[in-house]
Write a structure and sequence with these properties.
TIM Barrel, Xylan alpha-1,2-glucuronidase (chains A, B), A-glucoronidase_C_sf (chains A, B), 721 residues, 3 domains, GH (chains A, B), 8-stranded parallel β-barrel, homodimer, 37% helix, signal (chains A, B)
Chain lengths: 721, 721
């Protein structure tokens, strides 16, 4: 059998309706192709026939095109854009006729991206208004309106007011100039730097469209492990071309700035941020950038971390480095996003503590247009980490969240893991910074510290050249979910799952009821089969593909698995209490109180904070060893459950997506077993206890697992080493 | 404006017909979406309603699917596959009813890939038979039949017998295991080695389909600059998966074999081809391969060339190396394709002579299952080269042609160059090997030497992850054309151009009449604006992007441009006559006679064979300098003409393809000027003559052009250096 044969079925389906589209994975959640019953189709059709768009901008053209696509693909009709007796008016609030405007609560337009969708009655007839202060707000309102149709909502008396809670909602592309993507598992970079600026690929427009539809308003085009070459004049012409394409979609471009660029490009002897020539070089470069890109967003900088240059090289602090650039960007309203992901090989201090120690004392010292960009946890995007203790510890600094959407440590290209569940866990965590209820969401959206001028959330993109953008069809949900949570960090993972499933596949309740829990539970599954009970960073070295709890030969102690799990004959886990590194002291007292007792700490964080005896009695009455094995097996079982659920989903999704997901779940199941087997065999050397009876016979020896090598695993390239 | 807006137009088009498809660049020449008038649609529909496919193989399923796609997409109908009163019967000759069989000239089925499409009359009714000896021949017959419909041919009394003239019609993928493609300008490798064997991408099936449709029956999956890792057991499982997918499409897989694999994988101290342990290692590896892939095609080997290991390292000859592997492959009917592309840095001999000197003496020494794979010219895939003198010089050896489909030296990803015109020039060249008319086509298809057991043609693929496969929409024509000329090396470039244009876009004669000459002339254009009059290899170093006649600092003399053009105050060009390297002596006397006189040699090869004074009087009465400038300008003008023609093609092609091609032609025009300007300024230093009046003012200095750097040009990667 081959996959083409399935086309026959598809084509026959084509014939069974006059004009219907299949779900298209290229079009993400915007294919407008879910099944729709005739009644609803008629209702919707009757309400959107005549639309007036009162703006003559490029954004207005985009709105028009999007609505026409919706009408054509979802409703099999076309819209007339007219100013006579429209059913819908899309206009900036200032352009609305006063008779309409007075029926709208324009006070609720709290910022330039807020919008109102409201049905008003004029001469006994319904009129739907989509309005806001700017063209972009109209675009956001339009996508929100379209979503109501995608979700099959009643639009007869619609009334929605919405506004992003976070200002900078940004994708970070770890894309290199040679087209490779660090930690990319969806092919290669979508930026064709070589053919830019002359060749404007369609994918650039599609990318902007997809992001605009979920409210993402910024993109850092290149890798944080940066290459100064992006700042040369020919490359700035390429960047300008992208910026021009993205602008009408409300998306600003940002670049990473290699701190040593004044040496590499400017041929200066130093990159000392206090050196006048260095400052002049940056000033002139920034002036050049803004001449080409007047709304350039600013710089993202990884400094003095993992070999990147930075101000410390010249005896200067992160503050001095960040503020130098921020001062130069200020006249242009540009920002500096300065990453807090720093840890030093010179330090013997617990890596989990270093960023806090380095940055917390700087609170209040950064300029107002500096955001300190902090990863969600203190190590590095693990399946589960406690939250980063900097959240709540820098009240006078704009802290920006950095989530990873690409699944570096979470199964990479082949595991179905719904990340909004992870983001939700982090965002809803209470830091007690201003008493109970001081969630991380409230810190990064500015609610807790009203004087923060700028708020932001970054997601390391999972986008590549794969036809469906993200490789795994379900990884699209993580891009979507990041956008939704960046718009409103209190958005629940469950509501995102339902929305994304409905918009991408079908609103059929049988499908949604089965698939929502599959998505929601998928994150706990990966924790269980990779790193249960607070284990972390025991992946293979460098490419981080597959288990590697035995990794012990990397050049830096904190690049080795044994640094993190500390297995020995006594037990397992990293003592981060007072008897150990005392990383716990970086957290607020409410958390310290709960976590400093091995019997009250949530077991999910047990091995993160404690070195626990193998025979420690867990809450379930069994030993640590037995319980850990139970979780590994539970993770495997959960993937099996996902497979079984998926088998019943064939009627709801197109055959390509069905087959792709089926094959990928098979790989995930096999790799979950690999994780369980390799980790249990490895840790058993120390625990010296038999495998519990529920663990199936392991087909290989530990040496077999240790010998597996993957020199061409994606996301890392020999040239970067 | 943005490109989405064009979708509205497209969607409106959708509505204007009941069910029609746009041209889809993903589907290559197989979209079955050209406009078709109603009369022809009715005629075709009436003739293909009922088809009997008398084979129950996977290939039979593919035939069925393909015909159903044709019916659905081109004719808006569906086929019933039936054994009662079929209008078409597709069956192997042995499975045909004898009453039908007797009306078919089965003698004309000269090999297992031959097919017959013939209308016979049974009970006064027409019956169309598609037959051959094998399932694959039926697939080829089906694609040929489908092509008649795509070309809007009259099929009422169709009678076609066809057969490939060359046995091995093979794509060479220079794809690395990390996903990069050496000399790839269409994205990255389509082989997702990491997710194989578990994840069978749809593109693998689409790739097989496209190749089968043009008769390509083999694919070398990995780079000739080889990595032994492909021969490890886990990778062979991945290769097996691809082989299983490709098999029902008649495509065999081949691999490149790194000659030092016994050292790298087998941990042997040597890779000496006469060493017993080495032989045993290969024997065992080959046995392992055939256990997984019973119809594995064999090995392609680049040995002792550009740093690749080979038998010379151990004092053994190419014959000893090739025959060792051929002996081991023989029991499995596997072949060795041994590349003749060798030149040594130890030799001071003209690089153009070295392959001939090395291989010609071995004529008759290779085993029968060895093919010596020879590039079309003696240097390296230049816009124009004289033919490789080995053709005609090794009558007792199977010589396989190696063409490059990817445009390493011909504008890479952004230049429209129709290569079948180049291939035609080579294939129709007379070698006089057995008297006048001994064309290269007759050498490689075996006509000239009937005792050659195996014949073959290889093309270095231009395929990558770009949505349209080849990056430039018109580069698809080069893949298509290679397939057609590998099937029959006497196929004219013009007929290929017309076929491809018709199948891909429209049969509209206004379109075909304008676009055919554009394609045909495009090859001479690139010769003119890059390397007129026999100039060669004056591209930039390493990535070969853009002009670099000044390149002089590469580690090997023959990697420098100055080695090839030899410009000095006296003149320009490489003296390869008796007074110089005498490469001319490697050619037959008929050619020597014509070429050894500077006044009778075709001017297209002048600077390849002569160092010509700047003021040499050319046939046009002007000096060399003036004439060379004229050709450079002519090349630029030709690109301008292509642009002007293309502007009128908008009604015939879909908007994406129109816009993409328009932007790419703009780049090509700009780069043609770059070539002209940089080369004329450079050579003017030696010629010391003014630029002719027809050359527009050059906006930059020579230093400007020399300073341009492209460290991230595609197709080459730092890690390979």
């Amino acid at each position: 059998m081959n996959r083409y044969n399935s086309l026959i079925g598809l084509l026959i389906l084509f014939f069974s309706c006059n004009f219907c589209f299949s779900q298209s994975s290229e079009e993400l959640w915007l294919s407008y192709s879910q099944p729709l019953n005739n009644k609803l189709k008629e209702t919707y059709t009757s309400k959107i026939k005549h639309i007036q768009i009162k703006t003559f901008s490029e954004t207005g053209e985009i709105i028009k095109t999007e609505l026409q696509m919706l009408a054509t693909k979802m409703l099999d009709t076309s819209i007339s854009f007219t100013s006579t007796t429209p059913q819908i008016i899309i206009a900036k609030i200032d352009n609305l006729d006063s008779k309409f405007k007075q029926k709208i609560n324009s006070q609720s337009l709290v910022n330039n991206e807020s919008f109102i969708i409201q049905t008003i009655t004029v001469h006994q007839k319904d009129l739907l208004i989509i309005t806001g202060k700017t063209d972009i707000s109209l675009l956001y309102g339009t996508y929100c309106f379209i979503k109501q149709l995608q979700l099959h909502k009643d639009i007869s008396s619609i009334s929605i007011t919405d506004s992003p809670k976070i200002q900078l909602r940004i994708l970070n592309h770890w894309d290199n100039l040679d087209g490779t993507v660090e930690r990319g598992y969806a092919g290669f970079s979508i930026w064709d730097w070589h053919l830019l600026p002359g060749f404007k690929k369609e994918i650039y427009y599609e990318y902007a469209r997809a992001n605009a539809s979920i409210g993402i308003n910024g993109t850092v085009l290149n890798n944080v492990n940066s290459n100064a070459y992006i700042l040369t004049s020919p490359y700035l012409q390429k960047v300008k071309t992208l910026a021009d394409i993205f602008r009408p979609y409300g998306i600003k471009v940002y670049l990473t700035a290699r701190f040593s660029a004044p040496i590499e490009l400017g041929k200066l002897p130093t990159a000392d941020p206090l050196n006048e020539e260095v400052i002049q070089w940056w000033k002139s470069k920034i002036s050049e950038i803004y001449k080409e890109i007047p709304d350039f967003g600013g710089f993202l900088i990884k400094a003095n971390s993992e070999g990147q240059p930075g101000p410390n090289t010249y005896g200067r602090s992160h503050v001095e480095g960040a503020n130098m650039l921020a001062t130069l960007l200020e006249p242009y309203q540009g920002v500096v996003m300065w990453r807090a992901f720093v840890y030093s090989e010179q330090q013997s201090e617990d890596r989990a503590k270093q960023a806090f120690n380095e940055f917390a004392p700087f609170d209040g010292a950064f300029k107002e247009n500096v955001l300190v960009q902090v990863k969600n946890g203190p190590i590095d995007f693990q399946p589960r980490e406690p939250y980063h203790p900097l959240f709540g510890a820098m009240p006078k600094t704009s802290l920006m969240m950095e989530f990873q959407i690409t699944q570096e440590y979470l199964g990479q290209g082949s595991h179905l893991v719904f990340l909004p569940k992870l983001y939700e866990e982090v965002l809803s965590t209470d830091t007690y910074a201003k008493g109970k209820g001081s969630t991380i969401a409230k810190i990064i959206d500015g609610e807790l510290y009203q004087d923060h001028r700028i708020t932001g959330m970054a997601g390391v993109a999972n986008i590549g050249t794969e036809t469906n953008w993200t490789g795994h069809p379900f990884a699209q949900a993580n891009w979507y979910g990041f956008g939704r949570q960046a718009w409103d960090p209190t958005t629940s993972a469950e509501s995102i799952a339902k929305e994304w499933l409905s918009m991408t596949f079908t609103t059929d309740s049988l499908f949604i009821q089965q698939m929502t829990p599959l998505l929601i539970n998928s994150r706990e599954a990966v924790v269980n089969y990779m790193t249960p009970l607070g284990l972390h960073h025991i992946m293979n070295a460098e490419h981080h593909y597959g288990p590697g709890p035995w990794i012990a030969n990397m050049s830096r102690p904190d690049w080795n698995s044994i640094y993190y799990h500390r297995a020995d004959s006594l037990g397992l886990g990293f003592d981060r209490t007072q008897t150990g590194s005392n990383a716990l002291e970086q957290y607020p007292k409410e958390i310290q109180e709960q976590f400093s007792n091995i019997h009250t700490i949530p077991e999910a964080y047990l091995l993160w904070f404690y070195h626990v005896p193998w025979d420690f009695k867990m809450k379930n009455g069994h030993t640590l060893w037995y319980t850990m094995a139970w979780y590994y097996q539970q993770g495997v079982n959960e993937v099996k459950n996902m497979q079984q659920t998926w088998e019943h989903m064939q009627p709801y999704v197109n055959n390509d997506i069905y087959q792709d997901t089926r094959m990928l779940l098979e790989i995930q199941y096999s790799e979950a077993q690999w994780w369980r087997n390799a980790c249990l065999l490895y840790f058993q050397q120390f625990a010296k206890m038999p495998l519990p009876e529920f663990i199936p016979e392991i087909p290989h020896t530990l040496d077999y697992y240790k010998a597996l090598k993957f020199p061409y695993a994606p996301g890392i390239h020999p040239s970067w080493n």
